[in-house]
């Protein structure tokens, strides 16, 4: 081998080694083992549910794989479950926190205080003030692993929970807790919640639909700093040139139509799921089920019925039955029921297609009281 | 005498082709070395290997007594080069080009730069050049500017590849005078060319390259030394054979080649016999004859398959 | 050596033509937005463009955001692709190396001069953007509003704008390194520039593709828009630091590859 060929080889060899080291670094960091601890499932659940007052700030990403047939009013809520949402959070307490949804060219910040929420949208320069409500569409803060994990675990029974090892999330040791719903007709196969060993904060939540291999929803922290963030970061004062509006509430229209529609007494149970008592909600609106398995029934105003029906019919995989059209998207089932006396209800929840059909039949048989 | 350029077993292979195949150059201080060879014989590749531009497949190059390309940073500032025609930044003036080239390497003091640039410009006959960008220069001006670049650091060795390319006859003569002048000042010149006449007029030593092989390397004086025969020009060629029986080597019209290294003796014999002699000279081989005898046919000839 | 390269670059008329063309687009956009009063809808168009209607002092950022995705990287790819291949094509490379300018030194000097070009270009775009913004739009001299809705003082705004200029400059290093590496592979500046552009286009395309999300964090264009994060309050450093590190890795690897190739290459141009 000549001197020149030798020089070529050692130079390119050095470059190759450099590339190999750099390429291997992320894999090595990712393979750092997490240390497990012998915490029983019930204790871990209690720690997670009781973590609402742990102060922290962090950076979280949620990725949803749902493809929902949506109407205009529901776009933002549906995007939460079908897109990748990047969030920054500063958490001082359940009614004192700030969650920013980051966009490439702006952000939407939700600032929660004792009296309600400020929602700041940079690109349209609008600050919206909203009241706390007992029933609302999902908003970005609900997708934080900590909030979602607490909500899903809060109604879980001891028999539904098992321990599943540990992993590293956001650089911290997280203990796994698996929830397999016992409710009949649930479309959720399991929910894996990874709980911070030190504080009980849920750090990652994976919701897997029955029969699926990929999670339908995966939300996790990428960065987490413990410690109560300063109040000045969480507080919000609308900028001088911002437009200030009341927060739009897509559900209020439905609730209004529920109030104006002829009084209907929804049954105490649908498809084997008991009705939940809710404050400030008209009798025509109902939520059934427990924990991970829930089904909402909302009356649809006559003006919206045909558009919703068209959207559901057009969606791939929709099933038309005598009571109405139904559709499953991941763990979520949706059904539009049109009763013989020309009223319409939308059923949506984490139940199987069969369960939603059964519930639909229950609604279809209702008669005005 | 220390060799200024010496190569040992220099080989450059491109794939399966051996562009340069084991040459041993030997250029000594004070030489004006003519490096001859047809187009494609490997001249340019050799020149580039000398300067460290092309890295040899095998063999060694020593320039001014130091190994190349290892010692390039020490050696090359003492070498001036003109490689395959001049090249400049067209949007800059000639002065700016020279100043940038001078600043790009070691051994050019910033303080004396303007003065040195002006000196070499005068040396190559561009002393009065204005701020025109080089792209407006004629071919000859560019050639002179390239030569100025090579002379910028008063090199001990000049490596020139076809330095008179693009020059008019006056220009060629000026460059020749300049090179001879530099040579008298002690500069060794390595001149690569395919122009036999140019080499014959300038050089003291000659190397001939043929298809990657150095087929000849010798003092020009030795190559063109008298052959021991005398050339006689006479209108009565047939009578010469009668007078100098057995000594006539060849007759071509009025030109007769006669054995004998003393023209006076030949002349006396012929005149004594009443043969009219119009010309008389010692026979010397021309460089062309030497080169043609050493090298084969032109490498850019493509023979048909037989 | 670096001085020589800088002098070559900035004494070249083409360099200034490129910078002038680069500035034409933001100026045109400013005039059009002013005349029609049609700012892009939220979520569309370059960042900060809707904000300049209320505060023209933000226009340097909008101008950077306008040239960042395409114009600036094209200019960088052309200049970087020309760096070594251009000298080879003109024939000046052999004289430089015979001067001798060491090959490694030449590479570093070329990279530095490309970086200087990016910095000067970005500064000129920002300056022209400021002049355009303040003449075409209304200006709020006191302060600006951050992306998070808090108010920024004039000093904060200037400081963060300078940081953004620095970040955009660093973001271009990856493209520059690709251009420089390709420039050592070929004697054609055009081929080298096109090679760097091909990398750029491929990276931008893969970034939008869900199937490519596992490699997304390693794409050279991944963190380009992260300069917007400087205007969040508090500043979100996560993507900014990753962007800097990623560009550093690209520069390191490609410069090493360029060095391995160039120092053992036969210069036959």
UniProtKB/TrEMBL annotation, chain A:
Gene3D superfamilies for this protein = Lipoprotein localisation LolA/LolB/LppX
- Could you name the domain of life of the organism this protein comes from? Bacteria
List the protein's name: Transcriptional regulator
Source organism: Geodermatophilus sabuli
From TrEMBL, chain C:
Q: Does the keyword Transmembrane apply?
A: yes
Top-level taxon of origin: Bacteria
Keywords associated with the record: Membrane, Transmembrane, Transmembrane helix
Report whether ATP-binding shows up as a keyword of the record.
no
Query: So where does this one cross the membrane?
Result: 16-36, 56-85, 106-131, 162-183, 190-209, 243-262
> What is the protein's name according to its record?
ABC transporter permease
């Amino acid at each position: 081998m000549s001197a020149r060929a030798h020089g070529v080889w050692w130079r390119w060899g050095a470059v190759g080694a450099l590339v190999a080291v750099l390429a291997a670094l992320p894999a090595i960091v990712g393979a750092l083992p997490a240390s497990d601890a012998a915490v029983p499932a019930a204790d871990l659940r209690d720690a997670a549910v009781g973590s609402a007052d742990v102060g922290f700030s962090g950076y979280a990403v949620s990725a949803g794989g749902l493809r929902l047939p949506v109407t205009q009013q529901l776009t933002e809520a549906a995007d939460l479950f079908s897109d990748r949402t990047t969030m920054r959070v500063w958490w001082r307490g359940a009614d004192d926190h700030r969650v920013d949804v980051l966009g490439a060219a702006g952000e939407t910040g939700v600032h929660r205080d004792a009296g309600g929420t400020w929602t700041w949208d940079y690109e349209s320069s609008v600050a919206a003030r909203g009241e706390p409500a007992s029933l609302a569409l999902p908003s970005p803060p609900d997708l934080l692993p900590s909030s979602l994990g607490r909500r899903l675990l809060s109604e879980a029974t001891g028999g539904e929970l098992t321990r599943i090892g540990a992993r590293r999330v956001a650089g911290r040791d997280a203990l796994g807790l698996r929830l397999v719903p016992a409710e009949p007709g649930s479309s959720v196969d399991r929910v894996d919640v990874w709980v911070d060993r030190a504080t009980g904060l849920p750090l990652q939540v994976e919701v897997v639909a029955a029969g699926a291999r990929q999670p339908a929803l995966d939300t996790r922290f990428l960065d987490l700093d413990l410690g109560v963030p300063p109040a000045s970061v969480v507080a919000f004062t609308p900028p001088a040139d911002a437009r200030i509006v009341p927060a739009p509430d897509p559900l209020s229209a439905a609730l209004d139509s529920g109030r104006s529609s002829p009084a209907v007494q929804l049954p105490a149970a649908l498809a084997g799921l008991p009705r939940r008592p809710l404050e400030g909600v008209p009798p025509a609106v109902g939520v059934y089920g427990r924990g991970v398995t829930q089904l909402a029934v909302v009356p649809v105003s006559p003006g919206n019925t045909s558009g919703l029906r068209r959207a559901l019919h057009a969606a791939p995989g929709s099933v038309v039955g005598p009571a109405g059209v139904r559709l499953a998207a991941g763990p979520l089932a949706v059904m539009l029921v049109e009763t013989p006396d020309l009223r319409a209800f939308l059923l949506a929840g984490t139940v199987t297609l069969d369960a939603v059909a059964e519930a639909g039949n229950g609604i279809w048989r209702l008669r005005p009281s | 005498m220390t060799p200024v350029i010496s190569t040992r077993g220099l080989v450059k292979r491109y794939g399966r082709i051996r562009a340069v195949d084991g040459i041993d150059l030997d250029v000594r201080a004070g030489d004006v070395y003519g490096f001859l060879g047809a187009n494609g014989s490997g001249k340019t590749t050799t020149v580039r290997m000398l300067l460290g531009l092309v890295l040899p497949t095998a063999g060694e190059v020593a320039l001014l007594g130091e190994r190349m390309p290892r010692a390039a940073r020490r050696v090359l500032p003492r070498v001036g080069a003109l490689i395959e025609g001049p090249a400049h930044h067209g949007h800059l003036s000639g002065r700016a080009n020279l100043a940038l080239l001078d600043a790009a390497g070691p051994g050019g003091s910033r303080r004396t730069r303007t003065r040195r640039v002006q000196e070499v410009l005068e040396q190559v006959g561009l002393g009065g050049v204005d701020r025109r960008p080089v792209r407006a220069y004629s071919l000859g001006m560019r050639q002179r500017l390239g030569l100025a670049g090579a002379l910028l650091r008063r090199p001990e060795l000049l490596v020139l590849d076809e330095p008179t390319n693009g020059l008019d006859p006056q220009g060629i003569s000026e460059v020749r005078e300049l090179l001879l002048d530099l040579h008298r000042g002690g500069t060794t010149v390595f001149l690569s060319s395919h122009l036999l006449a140019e080499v014959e007029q300038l050089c003291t030593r000659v190397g001939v390259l043929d298809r990657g092989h150095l087929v000849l390397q010798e003092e020009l004086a030795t190559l063109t030394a008298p052959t021991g025969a005398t050339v006689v020009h006479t209108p009565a060629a047939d009578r010469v054979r009668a007078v100098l029986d057995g000594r006539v080597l060849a007759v071509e019209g009025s030109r007769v080649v006669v054995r004998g290294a003393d023209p006076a003796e030949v002349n006396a014999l012929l005149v004594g016999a009443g043969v009219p002699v119009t010309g008389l000279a010692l026979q010397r081989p021309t460089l062309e004859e030497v080169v043609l005898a050493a090298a084969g046919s032109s490498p850019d000839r493509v023979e048909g398959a037989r | 050596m670096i001085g020589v390269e800088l002098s070559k670059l900035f004494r070249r008329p083409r360099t200034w033509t490129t910078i002038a063309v680069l500035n034409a687009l933001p100026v045109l956009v400013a005039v059009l937005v002013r005349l029609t009063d049609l700012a892009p809808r939220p979520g569309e168009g370059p960042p900060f463009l809707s904000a300049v209607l209320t505060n023209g002092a933000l226009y340097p950022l909008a101008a950077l955001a306008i040239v960042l995705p395409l114009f600036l990287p094209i200019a960088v790819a052309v200049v970087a692709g020309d760096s070594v291949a251009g000298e080879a094509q003109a024939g000046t490379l052999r004289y430089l190396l015979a001067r001798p300018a060491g090959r490694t030194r030449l590479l570093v000097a070329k990279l530095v001069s490309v970086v200087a070009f990016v910095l000067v270009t970005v500064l000129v775009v920002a300056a022209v953007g400021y002049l355009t913004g303040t003449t075409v739009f209304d200006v709020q001299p006191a302060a600006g509003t951050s992306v998070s809705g808090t108010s920024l003082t004039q000093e904060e705004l200037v400081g963060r704008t300078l940081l953004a200029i620095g970040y955009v400059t660093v973001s271009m290093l990856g493209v520059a390194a690709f251009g420089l590496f390709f420039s050592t592979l070929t004697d054609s500046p055009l081929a080298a520039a096109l090679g760097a552009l091909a990398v750029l286009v491929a990276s931008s395309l893969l970034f939008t593709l869900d199937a490519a999300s596992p490699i997304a964090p390693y794409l050279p264009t991944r963190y380009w828009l992260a300069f917007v994060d400087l205007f969040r309050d508090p500043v979100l450093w996560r993507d900014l630091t990753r962007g800097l590190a990623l560009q550093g890795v690209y520069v390191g690897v490609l410069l090493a590859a360029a060095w391995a190739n160039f120092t053992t290459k036969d210069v036959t141009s």
